[in-house]
Amino acid sequence: MIRSLYTAASGMKVNQAYVDNISNNLSNVNTVGFKKSKIEFEDLMYQTMKEPGSENGDGTKAPVGVQIGLGARVVAADKQFMQGNMEQTGNPLDAAIQGDGFFQVRLTNGEIGYTRAGDFKLSGDGYMCTNEGKILEPGIVIPEGVQDLYIDGDGRVMGTTQSGALPEEFGKLELARFINPAGLRAQGGNLYTQTEASGEPVIGEPGLDGFGELKNQYLESSNVQMVEEMVSMIVAQRAYEISSKAITTSDEMLQTATGLKR
Amino acid sequence: MVNGIYTGRNGMMLLQEMVDNTTNNLANATTTGFKKSLMSSIAEVNNKRNNENLLYHDESHWMADNRIDFEQGSLVDTGNPMDVAIEGKGFFQVETPDGVRYSRTGSLTRNGMGEVTTLQGFKVLDSSGSPIQAEGAAFSVSSNGNVQVDGQSVGKIAVVNFENPQELQRVGQNSYKLPEGSEQVALPSEDFTLRQGYIEASNVNVVESMVELIRFQRNYEMDQKAVQSEDETLQKAVNEIGRIG
Fold first, then answer.
1. How far is Cα B147 from Cα B131, in angstroms, rounded to an integer?
2. pLDDT tens across A16-40, in order?
3. Distance, first Cα to last Cα, chain A
């Protein structure tokens, strides 16, 4: 009986985590390059009351045993690196990755961070950087007074410094990809860092060797699907309620048992 | 007389276990690939004669078993290429630190070495028992388990089944094992389709479980009343019948 109280509590706990995760997805529904997480659960250990194949009182063998489970827990919040929709912005420094890969930026601690958000800006000294001022790796400097700036499908940043001149190349965007992007650590600020689970980054050119192509003047919007999250929220809330009913039931039964002795 | 009290007590203890079981089903109502447990009880009631040929009521065994209900869970579209659901019969074979286990949960991922694993990090095996190396961007799984990465075939996910899957024991972490000393072996399943981009939802039916909870609770109360009235009868026997004057 006490067992079912804890089992039901674990059920409430996982569904609470479920709602936490949905809320985070929903609050990032307009975050550029955001990738939703999917939370996954697993059952806890089982208490074996009777082994299958053990002998019954009358000498027959039990074809099935008795195992009572102890609830559920969260096993993973799995980042879903599915493509988000492309949104046209008209901004020449915006780039979206259509396919596999991450932009690389230099973090303040010297490590490399990875991001899908391609809404780049220029720093005070002309470096292409993220909204938070993290400079792209390898660094690309765009001189002052450049006109007709664009990024081509291969990642070359082009523009003209004098009117009438041919466009020249200021640098080239490189992409990184991972065997297991779901194993990256989300750092917030649209950034991910490498972990043991993600594997080593493979660096390459956009559009080649399985890397995604760059779309200039587009941004990749969040891949959160509102309807999907709302449906999950309903499921999570109902599952939460129903585990709370199991607690009430156990509690009332305990009360009944206490009522045995008057 | 005293027998009746024990009968009621046995019933109450059994019902507690049944509530525990239903609660576990409910706690796993949102666990991918979870299969609910069905619990049943059999009361073994015998009217026997003892040495003096007097009739007595022997009711010693309350047997309960819980079988795993392997009914198909509904397939939910996730659009994630690493999600693979089994439609039909069978299990994935996964390698855990404790040996080979069987699982229906196909929320897959890859580890840093590029091997296909479950979210717990258990390697998913092919029919020869080796992990599947799948490095590359485009990951696809055909309906019979062939894994392709960037158009190259890299292995085949094995889906196995058992003559009597009821013998499987639950070990948590969405997986099952064969009990020690089992004579069964994993056979290739013949009746399945793998669906990429789907997960198999838990097959717990919450309405059914709620009705079970109500039923168990009321039965529990009835048993309690039975114990109480036995107690009252006993009380009368002890305190009133024997009174003199």
1. 12
2. 999 999 999 999 999 999 999 999 9
3. 21
Question: Chain A 33-62, CB below 8 Å of chain B: which residues?
Answer: 38, 40-46, 48-53, 56-58, 62
**For chain A, what is the HEC assignment?**
CHHHHHHHHHHHHHHHHHHHHHHHHHHCCCCCCCCCEEEEEEECCEEEEECCCCECCCCCECCCCEEEECCEEEEEEEECCCCCCEEECCCCCEEEEECECEEEEECCCCCEEEECCCECEECCCCEEECCCCCEECCCCECCCCCEEEEECCCCEEEEECCCCCCCEEEEECCEEECCCHHHCEEEECCEEECCCCCCCCEEECCCCCCECEEEECEEECCCCCHHHHHHHHHHHHHHHHHHHHHHHHHHHHHHHHHCCCC
- A14 inside 8 A of chain B by CB: yes
Q: Quick check: B80 contacting A, CB < 8 Å?
A: yes
User: What does DSSP assign to residue B166?
Assistant: G
Question: Chain B residue with minimal CA distance to A78?
Answer: B119
Whether the full predicted model's pTM is greater than 0.90, yes or no, is: no
Q: How far apart are CA A95 and CA A83, in angstroms?
A: 14
CB pairs under 8 A between A and B: 228
Chain B interface includes A76 (CB < 8 A): yes
Complex ipTM tops 0.85 = no
Inspect the interface and report whether the beta carbons of A64 and B12 lie closer than 8 Å: no
Taking only the tens of pLDDT, chain A with its 262 residues reads 688 999 999 999 999 999 999 999 999 999 999 999 999 999 999 988 877 777 766 777 777 778 889 999 999 998 999 999 999 999 999 999 999 999 999 999 999 999 999 999 999 889 999 999 999 988 999 988 888 899 988 889 999 888 778 888 999 999 999 988 888 999 988 999 999 888 899 999 998 888 999 999 999 999 999 999 999 999 999 999 999 999 999 999 999 988 887 7
Contact predicate A76/A70, CB 8 Å: no
Range 177-216 of A in CB contact (< 8 A) with B: 177, 179-180, 182-183, 195-200, 210-211
Q: Are B134 and B154 in contact (CB under 8 A)?
A: yes
Residue to substitute from A185, A260, A262, interface B, most B β-carbons within 10 A: A260
